[in-house]
Structures are given as C-alpha cells and as structure tokens.
Amino acid sequence: MNYQTFRPKKASYDMDTSLLRAVPSTPKPLPSSENVITRTIAVTSGKGGVGKSTISVNMAISLAKMDMKVLLIDGDLGLANINVLMGIIPEYNIYDVIQGKKDLSEIIISTNFGIDIIAGANGISQLADITRKQRQSFLKQMEDCTGYDVVLVDTGAGVGANVMGLVLATDEVLVVTTPEPTAVTDAYGMIKSIVAHNPQTSIRLIVNRVLSALEAKRVADRLKSISSQFLNASVESLGFVFEETLVQKSIRSQKPHVTLFPNSKSAACIRHIGTKVGSNSKLIQGDGLRGFFHKLTGGNTDEPLGILT
Ligand SMILES: Nc1ncnc2c1ncn2[C@@H]1O[C@H](COP(=O)(O)OP(=O)(O)OP(=O)(O)O)[C@@H](O)[C@H]1O
Ligand SMILES: [Mg+2]
Known about the structure:
Elements: E1 9-10, E2 12-14, E3 19-21, E4 39-45, H1 52-65, E5 70-75, H2 82-85, E6 88-89, H3 94-98, H4 104-107, E7 108-110, E8 116-118, H5 122-126, H6 132-143, E9 150-157, H7 161-169, E10 172-177, H8 181-197, E11 202-210, H9 213-231, E12 235-242, H10 245-252, H11 257-260, H12 265-279, H13 288-296
Parallel strand pairs: 1-7, 3-6, 4-9, 4-10, 5-8, 5-9, 10-11, 11-12
Antiparallel strand pairs: 2-3, 7-8
This protein binds adenosine-5'-triphosphate and magnesium ion (MG).
Magnesium ion binds next to α1.
C-alpha cells in the first residue's frame, strides 16, 4: 500500500477533563492507494434510538482490528454523537473544507481506537447548497483520500430527505431495528423507501437489543418475508446484538464497549457482524468516498442535490 502526504489530525488525551481532544500532535500518514476499493456503508434505521451510533462505532473498531482501514462519518444531521461515544471533541467539520478554510486532512480525526472519524454533521447538510466550483474543489480533495477499505456512515433515523440522501449515496445499507413492533414497522418503512428509490441497493438487517438469538431470528425472518412478499426485495440478515447493561455502561464512560468490555456478549455479537461485513469486501465494487460525496452533492448535474434540501 502506498503512503502519501495526506495526514489526519490525531486526537490526543486531555488528562484534565478525561476527554479526548482533537488537537494537532504527530499525525500518522493516511494510507492511499489507487488499488484499494473503498466500500461505503450506511448504518440507518426507521425508528430513532435503536442503536445505530453504538453499532457504527463498535463495528468500525472491529473492522479496524481486522486490519481494515476504516473511516467513520457522523451523518446524523440532528445530534452528532459519534465523537461523544468516543470522548472526542472535534474542532471542525466538512463545511470548513467546502469553504476552503480547512483541508480534508485537518477535519479527519485519527482516534486512539484505530479508526479515523469525520465528526459532526453540520457540514453535510450544507453540501446541498455549495456552488459548482466549491463542489469541484471538494471532490478533488476526496480523490486524495483513497486508502480506506470501508467508510461507515452513521445516519439519523427515518425516511426524511437528509437521511435518504446519505443512504442512497452509499454502496450498501445496514438497517438497524430492535424487536419492538414500532421499530420493526419503521424498519420496514425504511426498506420500502430505499427500494422505491433504488431497488438494486444491498440491504442488510441488524437486530439490536435482543434477549435471545431466537428473538432476533423471528424479527429478521418477519422483515425478510414481508420485504420479499410486498416489495419483491431481498433483504439479508447480518446478525444481532444482545441487550446488555455493559453497553450503557460503556456509553457513560465514553469508551466503545468492544474496547472496554471485549469479553462481553454484545462485543462478541459486534465482532461477528464485523467479520461478516469485512468478509465480503472483495465481492462488492464500491464507488468509493469520492463517489459517495459526488452523489451527495448532485452527481453529474450542475444543480445542487435536491434530495438534501
Ligand atoms: N445492545 C444494547 N444493549 C443495551 N442498551 C443499548 C444497546 N444498544 C443501544 N442501547 C441503548 O440505546 C441508546 C441509543 O443508542 P444509539 O444512540 O446508538 O441509538 P441511535 O439509533 O444512534 O439513536 P438516534 O436515532 O438518536 O441517532 C443508547 O444510549 C443505549 O442506552
Ligand atoms: Mg445515532
């Protein structure tokens, strides 16, 4: 793998506040290789609060432990919290890059957990309003950012334009639900919306907060069956995560549970999901990070992307 000058900002530990702050230190080079195919994967849901951000952060770390180079983007336009889950205080966001105030390397934070993140989503909502010139210069910077194996995008919930914009710009979609009937109904609504916009999208399910493997299977089977029957869509089951108080404990300590409680049942579930996601990396040809932002900012049209507005 080639290494080049693209350097993310390194998060360092602040002893006074016990929070990781995004301050410059000795940054390590970001790998960049024309040969790496970057897969972009959205983690989304119909209902809010089902565990998308928790799963995104922990799965990203699991993938990194499998020697994959991972970038996690916080795409929740409401409340950004990827950084909070990792105890990181970001200084800048994507909008600073679009405005030309910062380079991409200055907003990508290299964390102590083995993954890079783009924290805070304020900039993403403004991608809809950028000029053609700004878009071109932004996409040009994306061309230098080719070394990631996987880009995970943690979205907000629901089928609103902002979330759908992110979901439809990625190569693959992971839909998270809990066993609660309201969450399952909303997960179906999300699948329906994705299929309506792009029937070719690869959609896979994660059932979070289950009490047993059987409960997870029942939920996944039900969603797979109604998606097949009413939408003619093939939805795959990716796995489940047990309900566990250690997950909440790790959120309170702002340290992901795969790191804090690696021997917990929920961490094992996440690793299992990560292995499945990682194992088909060679099967899918992704459009890459540039493709993702290209779609998000209006594709080949000269107009800003309507879906985000
Ligand atoms: N496996 C689990 N076991 C126990 N509690 C969990 C588990 N997963 C998530 N939670 C709880 O659910 C809460 C919401 O999780 P999270 O913030 O990841 O959801 P989200 O889908 O990203 O929410 P939003 O839609 O607001 O972005 C967590 O703060 C935690 O308390
Ligand atoms: Mg979230």
